[in-house]
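To whoever picks this up:

The parser on our side crashed when reading a file containing two proteins. I've narrowed it down to the boundary between the first structure block and the second sequence. Both blocks are reproduced below exactly, byte for byte. First block:
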Amino acid sequence: MAEETLPETQIEAHNDGFGLARTHRTLPIALLRAREVVMERFRPMLAANDVTEQQWRVMRVLEEAGETDASFLANKACILAPSLTRIMRTLEARGFLQSHRDKTDGRRMLITLTEEGRAFIRELAPQSAEIYASIEEKIGCENIDTLLDQIENLLRALDN
């Protein structure tokens, strides 16, 4: 996604009367734009393997966390609970995850990756690592670490 610039006259003339910053210099827009330029590198790999970004996030969180409940999974995968239910059905149908009721709390669903799900992640891991390496090559490992640290700081500071 290329940086779009406005002619200097439009930049100077911009005055919305509310004291709002130009959208390209607002945190929400900048974070969305950054997400899009990163994800456009991963989307072809995901599409070629018939998995959505959300499904991939769910599987990656489960791969890291092991068996967990739906609330934790939705939170860590940045997915709303109703969407998670649909995603889980799809991944269960593909044999990538399984769920069952917690024996100590019947209201709680526990979810885990199956061996097929782990194998799928192992299969895509080299492609994903290659894409990540190309991003690191463009902006540098140190810059990525700094950016991730700053995002962590932002999350901690704004987490109520």
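<<boundary where parser fails>>
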Amino acid sequence: MTEENKQGQFIMSSGDGSQPYNYALGLYGSKFIAELRDKHQILGIRCPKCKTVYVPARQVCGPCFTEMHELVPVATEGKIVSFTILRFQFLDPETGEKKPVPYGYGFFKLDGADNNFQHFLEVPADESRLWIGARVKAVFADKAQNTLQTIRHFALVDN
């Protein structure tokens, strides 16, 4: 469960789980989730020194150790950098339901970002269509959530 506090920041909790937790998403994480939920837009953050764009946003550029503040939109499309196809079920920690198989998980370089973004990947009937460098786009859930699950998965872009 994720709730928004008075400052517009999100707090995630485990609900009735056996290991309860609260996790503050912070200023940039909260803006990232709000933009995703409200506009289906993915936000990155640009380093003022080296101009690297990170998704999701973080406060400090790793190589430069420079504080970052400039939030920038990046595309909801990009290329597959790495992926795997899983053929066994497990309980999705976000939903508590079994994940249907096969399902994919991958790293994607979104257009406008300089690092990789990881998420679920739709596996097409013809699995040979999945390859490193293939174009993908974010597929959004029917109901927006205060989590990364607003993106249901990434799917191949038909050329």
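After patching the parser it read the second block fine. The chain has one helix and eleven strands. The mean pLDDT is 89.
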